[in-house]
## 1
Amino acid sequence: MLQFDVTHALPFLPKNWLSSRLDGLTDARNLLERGNGLGGEFTGWVNLPAQFDQREMQRLLHTARIIQSQSEVLVVIGIGGSYLGARAMLELLTSPNYNLLCKKTPQIFFTGNTLSPDAMTELLDYVREKDFSVNVVSKSGNTTEPSVAFLLFRQLLEEKYGREGARDRIFATTDRKEGSLRALANQEGYATFSIPRSIGGRYSALTAAGLLPLAVAGLDIREMLSGAAEAMTALRQPGQDNPAWQYAAARNALYAQGKNIELLACYEPHLRSFGEWWKQLFGESEGKDGQGVFPASVEFTTDLHSMGQYIQEGTRDLFETVVRFTYPLSSCLLDPEPGDGSGLDYLRGKDLRYVNEQARRGTVLAHVAGGVPNLLLTAGERTPFWAGQLVYFFEYACGLSGYLSGLNPFNQPGVEAYKTNMFALLGKPGHEGQRQALADQGLL
Amino acid sequence: MLQFDVTHALPFLPKNWLSSRLDGLTDARNLLERGNGLGGEFTGWVNLPAQFDQREMQRLLHTARIIQSQSEVLVVIGIGGSYLGARAMLELLTSPNYNLLCKKTPQIFFTGNTLSPDAMTELLDYVREKDFSVNVVSKSGNTTEPSVAFLLFRQLLEEKYGREGARDRIFATTDRKEGSLRALANQEGYATFSIPRSIGGRYSALTAAGLLPLAVAGLDIREMLSGAAEAMTALRQPGQDNPAWQYAAARNALYAQGKNIELLACYEPHLRSFGEWWKQLFGESEGKDGQGVFPASVEFTTDLHSMGQYIQEGTRDLFETVVRFTYPLSSCLLDPEPGDGSGLDYLRGKDLRYVNEQARRGTVLAHVAGGVPNLLLTAGERTPFWAGQLVYFFEYACGLSGYLSGLNPFNQPGVEAYKTNMFALLGKPGHEGQRQALADQGLL
């Protein structure tokens, strides 16, 4: 099981940082268990790792093999929670360079998350000469960005393979019954997977939304669910030793003391996209009512040479949470020759994993001395099992943390604001009132 | 010339936001001109675009052709300012997918910026079977991360090509005279380019540090310098219409009102790494003495579905600065067929560039209504000329901004703290005192 270490934040915390929050955490835990808190209708993820439909799992694995056999490229279309979990896990468990390195499995591109004509054209041109399949991920089917991308890639599929052929290359992950994508899939006969209605986008990494692309990449998604299940069993046990309780309490206490910014830090480039997933999870769950810790992410030691100065000596409203793996997968021995000019004689015979770990330890000492509390989450290895644990840990801690703050961790009312204006500007039917309001202000 | 628009921040600014800062800006401008402010010995970048040595330029272009002809891969070794400018410009002007798309020019990988054994092993394995060259970028030659990577890639080059052959594939960008990398390059006879002593890492994007990799990618680096020169001429003119003065004054005024976090936002995925470059530039220049705006970056509309909720309704200490191009390079016409189920009938005949622009406009309205001041910087096209303008604009504005805040925008004293501890933990000679101190605390 994951280890959580609060030692290097204690100098910044009051003695009762945890004890004073045990009642609140107990309440939060019970709200998650019973699904009767704010947004309780979206707590289907809590029990998901134990309840995953085994026939759905078999269909996922079977479909992944079909996609592998017929595709050089899989285009995943989705925005927000519909792609961030899959991309985070893909890069964590393979590499940020997966598309350059994959040999036996299809390349995977994430789109439907931008309106940039340059980015869209680039990918359309890239797959035009390749055999490709599409996994469109949208709970409602109404979101503009994935709808636009699906329109374009579906048209390209139909050009290449005809309408019948295209049908065999489109895989829709959507609501079981409702929404425009479900209707279209039923009409066209696409293979489909469902996102349970009780699971919101940012909590959907362990549903088909996250798992199908990962299975196509050849990753063991059953192991991922096993890891998540182990975390689930451990984290649902109430008590002050619970690492999710400790994390939720510590960040709540740090925020109460004016630590407004949390940096998710890692020492592996593989975790960079994980930071983006984590930022949505916490930012969207807690950034409301004019409150919330601002989530940012850094990759060390890389960013110690860009953000390091600010972290060490800038405005003192930061704390950092490090995600660390005990065992890197590779060994990389340093063997400088005497007089080779490298200046690294003192590292002779050392493995880079040792150097990286001393960099982490040295950084903790430096940042704590500089006034930055440090929380540490340690996983075993960079494998699907541990990745599943990490996902569940942060989901569960986020749910606890939201309820501990007295808010609804499962809604995102603010996401509509830009859409409303955009639709009005674009003249979308149903937005005539807002369009008139903009016209009256001379904004059309 | 770049256009700067403060309109959507004015509701949050006092009337005298600019006029009250004109004296300070005049002083800041004069300190930059005369090089007699704090850190004035590092203002060599101010006049660089007009002074770029034309023989050095010819050597850069010539060397780029050599690297192109002998390499499938160029490995760029550098950390912080030694790689962020080159990577930002490469992705901005080609694509984040450059390494997948490049056909006539070498793939380019950036390393020497991590101690991860997994990342290092991955790249070593990747280039082992390829013809590759190395551009090692380090002003001093003493920084641990690039030294480690250079050791490993140099050993691999010598294995593949012999010691003589390796020499023809190593290109060092370093100080003109001093430092261990300069000494080694002289001893081994590597081709070298210099980083002027008067230019610090984060201001070095327009030196050989940034330009050589870009020339290898086939980009017109002379155009980039032309753009920078145009910006230089415009921005060194004092006055309240100067866009760099306006940007420096606006962010200074917003910070004074408690806007602690600046989001650099864009609507093109190509700008994501540009955000990382910008974060170093401002974070390292201003994050000191317990002060400074925290720099973060977002890519829209992508991140409106992850960070959008927080930006719209979270803690109200944000402002955002959008970098926009008037003309995207591609056209992407939307042509939904009636009844195709896309729900996009209202976009028929529209180009995606129009949709993306309405998304930007709608987002500004939403964020301003939500309490987030919006600054807008508009460039013409995503070309080397305009990229050079952008780089110079932000460098110059950062210098102004630092002096306006009364600090030294050119040092980074806090970057040493983690290194000191790391060296002590690793037993590097010269760090025995700190090592003993750690031992006394039981930290070894």
Note: Strands of chain A lie at 3-5, 73-77, 107-111, 132-137, 170-174, 191-194, 261-266, 294-299, 318-327, 374-381.
## 2
Amino acid sequence: MKLLEDKIRAQGNILSDKVLKVDSFLNHQVDTSLALEIGKQFHRIFEHKKITKVLTIEASGIQFAMATAMAFNVPFVYAKKKKAVTLQESVYTAAVHSFTKQETYQVCVSQAYLGPDDHVLIVDDFLATGAALIGLVDIVKEAGATLEGVGCVIEKCFQEGRELLEQKGVSVHSLAKISAMAPGEIHFVPGDDEALLQKENDHAE
Amino acid sequence: MKLLEDKIRAQGNILSDKVLKVDSFLNHQVDTSLALEIGKQFHRIFEHKKITKVLTIEASGIQFAMATAMAFNVPFVYAKKKKAVTLQESVYTAAVHSFTKQETYQVCVSQAYLGPDDHVLIVDDFLATGAALIGLVDIVKEAGATLEGVGCVIEKCFQEGRELLEQKGVSVHSLAKISAMAPGEIHFVPGDDEALLQKENDHAE
């Protein structure tokens, strides 16, 4: 997604070969126009699927889940993070290890809001280790719902997240795929969405 | 806001005279159409103010900040509840005591995203003790920005939040004001927005 890549080049702050800060427009201060475009792009990519619900995890996935849910005209659900494992019978839970924070937390979704009739699109801001997304995938499975795919805003292709998700048979689409980066330098690989738009352009010709 | 009150009556879950669960449509599963209407309503209430930024706190304020920011066509910022690893530059902070969780946490906003030129509308899902909102008010003051008002989706009028905010000279508007509740029973007082719409209707006659 060229708009997103341009924004990352212009306003992203590359702190190291692993850490990219995008909190001026994606996940602290939020450019709502860009978020809406991201939602529309996920809709273009997954519109052939019958999506009944968008699922994300608090907090930084919420703005993209909202934009995507708006584009599909369905509700979204955000999983909650809990440190203490209090026994709650009415929730689906998965354990997620955060490598950044070096701690394990529980991801919870109320059983009332996800069930066997749901066709779920999972959306999040980053795909890196894939830990949080795998927790969400496990929750969708636990709910007996159909997982239609995972949409990520930014993917760090040099980390193992995609591989781990694809091993579980999950269809993963990212809008900006970073192959390598270092302070002052960033390289993208063409995203699935660009291939898709190219195909659309081919049809139009 | 009648649409919201009707939804609370139909789908809200009153657990006690103090606890109202609205997680089927507001803050776990989210009805995006309702969230957008809430954003438009805050815009109607505050449109005479020159708003440059909407401010909220993660996680459950994000969907309403996004809808409100969309209506004003400005960015929004969500305060983080503790200092994140990648939030390296200087931050404004305020200590907030959560009565529900009986713990004190830090609310942080990067200094890069709030400054003296900003005219800020604070938005959140609930106004009860006002603790989190007062933290945000303090951060706006610390930034030297102009606070134009606070918009809350649901206010529990029987708690002290509004009084504490008004003591600080803050203009508070809530869309559903609960005067009293108990399992199976809920009472609303007319909201500021309804008075405003009534005024609009009077003009139209």
Note: Chain A has a mean pLDDT of 92.
